[in-house]
């Protein structure tokens, strides 16, 4: 009887990240179906809050409460530093500005922005950890950091045109840009790669040494849905075929690598 109770106690924490993950998917489905306005803005807030909850809950459940708190603080601090410097100087993303629709700010950075970083940073690191598992031990950390930064920046390639379309931020000089995306400059991609490298180094130092207690399904569901689900929404409802194509293109090598790993295991 005591063994059964212990098993249930273990399952409950393990299930904690799944609740906001499933709610996020259901909420994200509503976004492209709504007209621009307060209802769609509320959905955007809900998606980010749920996604950040998935990251913190999974980090805490899988690697301990200290790791969960560390992931939250490291991501929020890195986001505020990079975004506030970016707003003031244009480095490293290029010159941009936020609208008032995103609500309260800290150093000019809307509170929603660090939470959006948190929503995607932890899943990006988890995916990179999986993709680089076969690397030589001496090369695993730099490989994890590089791949995680690339995944993190790739997510923004899909998201940023949607947020510009929604009026949440605008770029002073959106050209030159990726083919098919004329509202976001290439400097933004370079900035995300730099910021991602810094953040993923911090997350790797925080979490790489801990033995996972649960699987990564919930955060990887969030990452997959926000990228591929976002690409579908861009193509079918939001009139953003360029970012939709880039989302699929960037996902192909990741899916291929995961398929090869699954076949070898």
Automatic annotation (TrEMBL):
The keyword Iron does not apply. It comes from the Bacteria. Keywords: Membrane, Transmembrane, Transmembrane helix. The chain crosses the membrane at residues 12-31, 43-61, 68-93, 105-125, 145-169, 189-211, 218-237, 243-260. PANTHER family: SLL0814 PROTEIN (PTHR39419:SF1). Pfam families: Caroten_synth. This is Putative membrane protein.
């Amino acid at each position: 009887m005591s063994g059964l109770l212990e098993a249930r106690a273990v399952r409950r924490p393990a299930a904690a990240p799944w609740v906001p993950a499933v709610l996020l998917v259901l909420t994200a489905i509503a976004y492209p179906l709504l007209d621009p306005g307060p209802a769609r803005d509320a959905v955007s807030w809900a998606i980010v809050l749920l996604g950040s909850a998935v990251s913190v809950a999974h980090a805490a459940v899988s690697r301990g409460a200290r790791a969960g708190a560390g992931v939250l603080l490291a991501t929020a601090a890195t986001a505020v530093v990079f975004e506030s410097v970016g707003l003031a100087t244009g480095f490293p993303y290029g010159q941009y500005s936020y609208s008032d629709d995103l609500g309260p700010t800290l150093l000019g950075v809307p509170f929603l922005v660090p939470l959006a970083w948190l929503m995607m940073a932890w899943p990006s690191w988890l995916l990179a950890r999986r993709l680089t598992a076969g690397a030589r031990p001496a090369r695993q950390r730099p490989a994890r950091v590089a791949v995680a930064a690339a995944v993190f920046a790739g997510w923004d390639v899909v998201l940023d045109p949607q947020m510009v379309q929604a009026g949440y931020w605008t770029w002073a000089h959106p050209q030159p840009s990726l083919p098919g995306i004329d509202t976001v400059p290439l400097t933004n991609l370079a900035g995300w790669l730099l910021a991602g490298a810094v953040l993923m180094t911090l997350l790797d130092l925080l979490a790489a040494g801990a033995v996972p207690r649960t699987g990564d399904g919930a955060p990887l569901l969030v990452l997959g849905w926000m990228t591929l689900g976002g690409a579908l929404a861009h193509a079918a409802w939001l009139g953003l075929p360029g970012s939709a194509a880039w989302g699929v293109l960037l996902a192909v090598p990741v899916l291929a690598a995961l398929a090869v790993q699954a076949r070898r295991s």
